[in-house]
Specification:
about 550 residues; alpha/beta; six-stranded mixed beta sheet; five-stranded parallel beta sheet
């Protein structure tokens, strides 16, 4: 599904195109609105826009200049220019700027939809060339990508090299020179339907994702692709330009959003992406990686197809205590940290299956297993800033007794109960966090309905990625944020029409519309009546009349 941006200094034009054209018919999932080229650039920095529709003549910066900047900064984004002027020079300059199409006002909805459909087909063809099977298969035959991934994986797990050795390895493998430079990590968890693929098919998808990322992050970032022990894709990303950290982070988030959308559109699957904060390569890499895993577990869990920025910064490093005779990588502590509860339960089963098969020194083996499991649980709790006693409740008293179990069965029962307590408490915490997010969003919208209540404004208020907010809100409520805002606006408009003497343009402003014309069109689309017709039909001179509420669910 594609994302569209409409730019025009005439607000009623923007509102009409955004609200009344059936964009969903051609696969447009989100429509953003800008009333100047400068506002459009801000939105392009914040969102993965696929197509920009812009008026040519605008104060401050023209649509032609906007199209030039889009071409230079976002080469995968296509521009369509609208103008009421039929001079050939405009069309010629637009074409020279790489504009995808040029339309003359007034343009019909069908003409606009047909043009954008053609542009979307061009975009799909370009991406199909990027991820062609022949190109992917040729890359797979080379050993170099695997060697690069292995080296990055070692750094993620905290393996230390001298600066000279690391530089030699990086030069030999042809990876970007990141030493001493700012770096962020992107953790990509491929989800349905990819986890059902055979190894070769999955490898092709992973290389396709790497190719897409290489296209999207160039030329603003250097990219080093790898894979961790959980089979998540990991990208070490370093900015080429010397902008401020906040600007670099915004550019990184936008590129990550584009990567997720490309996986949807061109690989027909889903992926969750977690973006780390910025650190210095290589010293901060392992800590940044720990932070992304923690964010994946705490903020995402088993939910799929999300994107967020890890908000906790660089976590304090904590050495994981593990017993080599019982744990292969990833260790039990790492599985808990990543929120892989099913895998953790399977690991417990294997540990006790091994204990059942052993003979002699059973008490020594019970002691070793007990310390390993208790250590993993404690590490999990402390990395999340919580006391273990708070997470597992009554089981903590048994832990304090110090190996009170004299049989494999008793220790296994305690271990399973411990894992269940950790899992249930974590899932409850996630639900509480989601409920608070929904309440914060609604409170913000209700208080600022007459002002900017866009998804971008909401994201800035709650300090979360707009895509994460949008998807969590939809999953928790069954309603899009935009639908909620629209419903609230219509409900408030109905109330003001029936209970106050306010003029139509005043009510339009009260519910967040800059132009009364746009408000009238949207109100009629939702109710079948203009605001004045609705007031004339349902308002009553009696003080105790019953108001007919418009049901926005129909």
């Amino acid at each position: 599904m594609a994302q569209l941006l409409i730019v025009d200094d005439e607000a009623h034009v923007v509102e009409r195109l955004a609200e009344l054209v059936p964009w969903e018919r051609i696969g447009i999932a989100a429509v953003y609105k800008a009333y100047s080229a400068f506002e459009a650039l801000d939105l392009l920095n914040a969102h993965a826009i696929d197509i920009v529709i812009s008026d040519i003549r605008m104060p401050g910066m023209s649509g032609l200049e906007l199209s030039r900047q889009v071409r230079d900064k976002w080469p995968k984004t296509k521009c369509i220019l609208l103008s009421g002027y039929a001079e050939f020079d405009y069309a010629k300059e637009a074409i020279s700027n790489g504009t995808a199409s040029y339309l003359l006002k007034p343009v019909t909805d069908e003409e606009l939809l047909d043009t954008i459909s053609d542009v979307l087909e061009t975009v799909r063809e370009e991406w199909n060339a990027v991820i062609s099977q022949e190109r992917i298969a040729r890359t797979l035959r080379e050993n170099l990508p695997q060697l690069r991934s292995t080296l990055l994986g070692e750094l993620l797990l905290g393996k230390r090299y001298s600066e000279a050795d690391l530089r030699d390895k990086m030069e030999m493998l042809g990876v970007p020179d990141l030493l001493g430079k700012p770096v962020s990590l992107l953790l990509v968890r491929l989800e349905k339907p990819f986890y059902g693929y055979d190894p070769r098919g999955l490898a092709l998808v992973e290389y396709a994702v790497g190719n897409i990322a290489g296209e999207l992050f160039a030329p603003g970032f250097q990219l080093w692709a790898g894979k961790d022990t959980y089979d998540y894709l990991v990208f070490a990303v370093s900015p080429e330009a010397g902008e401020g950290e906040e600007e670099r982070q915004q550019a990184l988030e936008r590129a990550a959003e584009q990567l997720q959308e490309a996986i949807h559109a061109y690989l027909k699957g889903e992926a969750t992406i977690v973006i780390s904060r910025e650190g210095t390569f290589p010293g901060d890499v392992a800590a940044l990686y720990d932070g992304t895993l923690s964010a994946l577990r705490r903020r995402v869990g088993n939910e799929q197809d999300l994107i967020l920025t890890a908000a906790d910064g660089l976590p304090a490093r904590t050495e994981l205590r593990s017993l080599a005779s019982l744990y292969e990588l990833p260790s039990l502590a790492q599985l808990l940290e990543a929120g892989q509860w099913d895998a953790a339960e399977q690991r417990i089963e294997r540990i006790f299956g091994e204990l059942q098969s052993r003979s002699g020194c059973i008490q020594e083996l019970l002691l070793e297993a007990y310390f390993a499991i208790a250590s993993a649980a404690s590490s999990y709790a402390h990395k999340n800033g919580r006391p273990l006693s708070e997470l597992i409740g009554p089981g903590y008293d048994q832990l304090l007794q110090g190996v009170p179990y004299r049989s494999i069965r008793h220790l296994q029962d305690w271990s399973v109960a411990l894992m269940n307590s950790l899992r249930c408490e974590t899932e409850s915490e996630t639900k509480r966090s989601r409920a608070k997010l929904i309440a914060d969003v609604r409170q913000f919208v209700e208080r600022r309905l007459a002002e900017d209540v866009s998804l971008t404004a909401i994201a800035e208020h709650v300090y979360m990625h707009p895509v994460y907010i949008s998807k969590i809100y939809k999953r928790e409520t069954g309603e899009n944020v935009s639908d909620y805002v629209q419903r609230l606006r219509m409900e408030k408009a109905v109330h003001l029409l029936l209970y106050t003497p306010g003029k139509i343009y005043e009510i339009a402003a009260d519910v967040g519309y800059q132009r009364a014309h746009s408000f009238i069109n949207v109100f009629k689309k939702h109710t079948g009546l203009t605001p004045q017709e609705y007031r004339d039909k349902y308002a009553s001179p009696q003080s105790d009349y019953e108001v007919k509420r418009y049901d926005t669910t129909t």
